Amino acid sequence: MKKPFVTKEQVDEIVKTYPTPFHIYDEKGIRENARKLKKAFSWNKGFREYFAVKATPNPFILKILQEEGCGVDCSSMTELMLSEAVGFTGSDIMFSSNVTPAAEYKKAYDLGAYINLDDYTHIEFLEKSAGIPETICCRYNPGGVFSLGTHIMDNPGDAKYGLTKEQMTDAYRKLMEKGAKNFGIHAFLASNTVNNDYYPTLAGILFELAVELKEKTSAHISFINLSGGVGIPYTPDKEPNDIMVIGEGVRKAYEKILVPAGMGDVAIFTELGRYMLGPYGGLVATAIHEKHIYKEYIGLDACAANLMRPAMYGAYHHITVLGKENEPCTHKYDVTGSLCENNDKFAVDRMLPKVDMGDYMFIHDAGAHGYAMGYNYNGKLKSAELLLKEDGSVQLIRRAETAKDYFATFDFCDILKDMKY
Ligand SMILES: *Cc1c(COP(=O)(O)O)cnc(C)c1O
């Protein structure tokens, strides 16, 4: 059973100030989860989570994570700017970009961020754009398929990211010639894994690579970045990951591979996004239409512009009809948005309690890659983001877009510049 972190009564209060649709985040859940992650890796002296900003690029959320000791993982100019504005600097920032413009390398370099190179050719590109920092990271792509046991998790051989194994060695040598002294290794091999073996297996691969790179190049390896990919159960039947088991699994690989190689000082970094925020954000929308044709439809005041994952990936997001948590799910609906796109459906053939017009729908697990992936198709405006604070109060952490925002990028006529909406 998935339980929303707000009740109908709370939403009744909230909508007096902030109408639906809105994204809402649970500060308490975010903090508790961040602390648990830290605890799971407390055996590693240098451990640090670098929150993947792209998942939830809101400065108020970043501030909470900063207070919990996290750094940030950025991959664009605006993510760097946002992080800088929140007060992240130097080693607080991982810059894990790809197809990187020169100006972004320059910005990352000037901030003193850890730069994570996505390709061998980026060494010279970075040198020309900014310079080679003393500490530098390379992203590894082992190719082939990535499996856990007999299950194929993902297909790195088809992914655009990272360097081959040979290139890793060559890159380390070249970077050493150019003055680099400390090295990191990074890899992201599977997304949204709901499996306690992902990180330990990945760690094993990267730890062995680290030993090999050290032997071949004598480079000093100071950190290994396990990146993102620890997932969340979107469907209610799935067991969530157990971060304590995951941390322990990584520790075992560390003791087995790195410690005997005299590399017991290597710091472990993570770049989690979904795991840090996914369950602690929900999209709240109101049922505004019902329609009975060949199927039963419930239409919401939110659409794929607010949460794109179902339309883009066919992703499941659990829905709770607020106030009807204990009613039986007797009705089968497609729950849709208003885009002129038939894939604008939050749910297909979903069993729910009978929905009445005006009911609030809580769409679960929208805290990561939710608001962030929003877009403006059909001229739809992005919703507000709210924070449910630990004391139960609600703070507006991003206002809803207005028509004026939407029209702000062209200069056409006064009517559009002076919108009242
Ligand atoms: C997207 C991304 C992450 C975060 O991924 P999650 O699945 O949200 O954990 C981390 N690192 C890099 C380089 C990414 O592109």
Can you walk me through this structure?
The chain is an alpha/beta fold and 421 residues long. The protein folds into 2 domains: 14-21 and 279-407, Beta Barrel (Lyase, Ornithine Decarboxylase, Chain A, domain 1); 27-278, TIM Barrel. Helix content is 29%, strand content 23%. The strands form 3 sheets. Strands 1, 12, 13, 14, 15, 16, 17, 18 and 19 form a 9-stranded mixed beta sheet that branches. Helix 5 (102-111) packs across helix 6 and helix 8 packs parallel to helix 9 (243-258). It is globular, with a radius of gyration of 23 Å. Bound molecules: pyridoxal-5'-phosphate. Pyridoxal-5'-phosphate (PLP) binds at residues 52, 54-55, 73, 96, 188, 191-192, 227-229, 271-275, 368.
Uncertain runs are none
As for the number of domains, it is: 2
Ions, cofactors and other bound molecules: pyridoxal-5'-phosphate
Question: Largest sheet, described in full?
Answer: 9 strands, mixed
CATH topology tier name of the largest domain: TIM Barrel
What is the CATH homologous superfamily assignment of the largest domain? Answer: Alanine racemase
Average residue-wise pLDDT:
97
Strand content: 15-25%
Number of strands: 19
CATH class of the largest domain: Alpha Beta
Radius of gyration: 23 Å
The assigned CATH architecture of the largest domain is Alpha-Beta Barrel
| Termini separation | 39 Å
Based on CA inertia axes, which overall geometry fits?
globular
Question: With helices defined by DSSP (H or I, 4 residues minimum), what is the helix count?
Answer: 13
Name the structural class: alpha/beta
Give the helix level as a range of percent. Answer: 25-40%
